[in-house]
Design a protein that fits this description.
about 220 residues; binds zinc ion; TIM Barrel; binds D-xylitol-5-phosphate; 8 strands
Length: about 220
Amino acid sequence: MPNKTIFAASILSADFANLGHESQDILSAGADVIHFDVMDHHFVPNLTFGAHICTALRNYGITAEIDVHLMVTDPEKYIAPFAKAGANRLTFHPITVSDPITLCKKIHDTGMQAGLAYNPDKSIEISDELFSMIDMILIMSVFAGFGGQKFIPASLEKISTAKKLIDAHNPKILLGIDGGINLDNIAQVTKAGANFIVMGSALFDVDDYKKRIDELRNASHS
Ligand code: DX5
Ligand code: ZN
């Protein structure tokens, strides 16, 4: 596991009319990664954005890692467009596919990393072969679909379970947590083992992004 806790800014909570500017601002304020939530109005009720907007961010000059979280019923169709758009990692919900190993292979073939996401009601079941194919496990601490939801406390135990699995298989796999992370619970999730912290509303619902990120960094070490 990397030593530094990675802060991934979910631009789902950014001002959509100014996505380039908002992404740049949050990165300048100290976020490490852009978390890009793709919702298809099918796997989840909400509808957001696709590869076109990822291209627009790259054209705007965003050079940071773009971490794509696919909340869609057919993740395979998104691989080629996002590879072309300059995304770095595609994380999908394994329940949406019959053969996650093949999907991970296809993602890796494009040069992107692959991740698996688990909603709060899904247990983490990963075969040894699949484990050898993944770069991230993303634990959802809210049900995928909307920003600004409340953190589900049972997620902490799930992080610990995933951490044990990761340590046993491949410590380089990132352990992500996504949903409802804020100043009050960030210490708990990092203590449980998460090292990739997705945050939307906690970052964007303030005027001073740098002050908020500094506060979160301090809280995450406490
Ligand atoms: C939820 C998304 C999250 C969400 C996080 O479906 O996957 O990435 O934007 O936002 P907050 O931090 O506001 O819960
Ligand atoms: Zn997400």
